[in-house]
Amino acid sequence: MIELSKRIMELEESPTMAVMAKAKALKAEGRDIVGFTVGEPDFDTPDNIKEAAIRAINEGKTKYTPVGGIVELKDAIIQKFERDNGLSYERDEILVSCGGKHSIFNLFNALLNPGDEVIIPAPYWVSYPPMVELAGGVPVIVETGDINGFKMTPETFKEVITPRTRAVVINSPSNPTGSAYASEELTALAEVALEAGILIATDEIYEKLVYDKFEFVSIASVSPQVKASTVVLNGVSKAYAMTGWRIGYAAGPASLIKAMAKIQGQSTSNPASISQWAAVEALNGPQDEVKRMVEEFAKRRSLMVELLNDIDKVSALMPEGAFYAFPNLSAYYGLSFEGRVINGSGDMADYLLDSKELAVVPGAAFGSDAHLRLSYACSEDVIKEGVKRLAAALAALR
Ligand SMILES: *Cc1c(COP(=O)(O)O)cnc(C)c1O
What value does the mean pLDDT of the chain take? Predict the structure, then answer.
């Protein structure tokens, strides 16, 4: 028996991946599973991006690149920040990593000493707390809730700041709730962070996936002072349907970016050269495909959220962005089906999968047991069928 590190023994496995694995196994057995678990766009990577990658291969761009990314990609990222966010960065303030997740991993490892605290509003993306812990830090969870539209207020933020606080994580639009902060809300949160002297880590991976004329604002653009104490985390995975290509990036103060690059230099080295060239095309090339995907997601979002709210005692907020609905099903907790009591989102997810072959992710995975996360990165037919199954399963509870 090989003895594993204490650090790893304490690390939780990704719960979203666990549910997906279970649903996949049932599907392989031939069961008619309808899935709302996917955490990635169901669209194909646009052709112009694929062609850029093929060109890169044919031109022999298949060797090591600088650890922090090729200058062409850094410049494309710099132009993206200028164009979309009104932010100017220099090359030494940009780091390209192997996916957005990797950028965040590098950040916490570059920033945290043992016991340092990172404030994370709940519901949160599953990976933030374990990544903070893996880096020796302590996640400090702030509850938000449906009433506040799943947003942290400046007051609740202030309350959890201690002398050990090093950073706050902002994820707008959010995975799992889809909720996004308006400009004034970001300004108010940024003031609190500035006053406390803590770093703002803003995960903007869903920036492009916003609906109903919602205007995305990066918290880094609130003022030059805020920009100086913010690291922006983004990537091409969600906006360009490029989850498998593994390109993410970070922008922030040069000293921090350099430290993050140091970790990368001793672990993964550069992200895949071919993927980097594909990302250059994603950022510099035509953006029509993004628009098309957003229009499609917008239709599905309305459909799913409206159908959910038609179910008795289910409430779902209309999300501003991303591709998830996050309905509250807690009115059904305590009820049972054939002696099986539903005591929370985990029980609910198991019940839905077993009785109706409907795969969902329990809200508990995101620090919110009252909810389920339902991804609408699927066809309208799947949405209709899945919500029908959900309604039937809930109606059968006594
Ligand atoms: C998908 C996602 C990421 C990054 O994903 P990568 O595939 O690693 O680029 C980061 N943050 C959130 C909240 C996400 O949902």
Answer: 97
